[in-house]
Design brief:
The protein is built from eleven helices and six strands. With about 270 residues, it is α/β, with parallel strands linked by helices. A six-stranded parallel beta sheet has the order 2-3-1-4-5-6, with helices on both faces. It is globular, with a radius of gyration of 19 Å.
């Protein structure tokens, strides 16, 4: 990647789309919603593993070349002029592989107080009450309790991301990781973006937090979840009452581990 590559990962409903919408105002950066690069990398890793009989012809140098080729191929029209910031929740779980491919790359993990991650998903589902969502297999019969359990599975939308986040957080490269809280991004966007540029070692750019333009409504429609990646015109904080039943809210209220310095032995940057 001629001008470098970095990654956005972390938890769903925690500001990754908003962060990308802000960063894409910088003409020197490319940022977007979730790209297909992550699944392509997973597929290539599988095909080059011992699961394939032809893997006998593949060594680590070849694996690296093939995987880098996926990034170069997908971003061939972008990376000659811009720094690429690729978004996918799976990147936290693949931090060691990313380090092998791009040793200078860093990962920004968008996080949010855990009950409000589940609340945000549930609010979105109830807002689209007449449109079953791909998130839950287009099943129109579930309740908030069913959806909570599905999200919380190890391969669920939230559970997988949370497990990957913790793996990276407690892994061997805390200096390559930054946790950007939704609360800071929405309440103090200038401070949040300044920290992002500093962490990535990129030249700062002036951003307009009152005029955010980012429309991926067609993609959200395909997912059967209108509003999944929508961002407001301006960055602001909304205060509301949770719609989660108290017992579900309380089940995950203690999972916001990054707020406790005692649980951050590696000194991961938390903004």
């Amino acid at each position: 990647m001629d001008h470098g590559i970095h990654f956005i990962s972390g938890l769903p409903r925690s500001g990754s789309t908003l962060l990308s919408a802000i960063l894409r105002q910088n003409p020197r950066l490319h940022a977007n919603i979730t790209s297909p690069v992550g699944p392509l990398v997973l597929g290539a890793l599988h095909e080059m593993s011992a699961a394939s009989e032809s893997s006998v012809f593949v060594d680590d140098a070849t694996r690296q070349a093939v995987l880098r080729g996926i990034f170069d191929g997908f971003y061939h029209a972008i990376h000659p002029a811009k720094t690429v910031i690729d978004t996918n929740r799976l990147w936290c779980s693949k931090a060691p592989a990313l380090k092998s491919l791009y040793p200078q790359a860093k990962i920004i993990c968008c996080v949010r107080d855990m009950p409000w991650v589940y609340d945000s998903v549930e609010r979105l589902i109830q807002r689209n009450a007449l449109t079953p969502s791909r998130i839950f297999g287009f099943d129109a019969s579930g309740t908030v309790y069913d959806r909570f359990e599905i999200l919380n599975r190890s391969n669920g939308m939230v559970g997988f991301a949370w497990n990957g986040l913790r793996q990276a957080f407690y892994g061997g490269d805390p200096q390559r990781l930054m946790l950007l809280t939704f609360e800071t991004l929405t309440s103090a966007p200038a401070r949040a973006i300044e920290a992002v540029y500093g962490f990535l070692g990129l030249e700062p750019c002036a951003h307009d937090f009152e005029n955010i333009a980012f429309d991926v409504s067609a993609f959200d429609g395909y997912l059967g979840t209108p509003g999944l990646h929508s961002v407001g015109r301006r960055v602001d904080v909304s205060s509301r009452r949770t719609i989660l039943p108290p017992e579900l809210y309380n089940r995950v209220v203690g999972d916001t581990f990054w707020r406790d310095p005692a649980q951050n032995p590696g000194g991961v940057l938390v903004v």
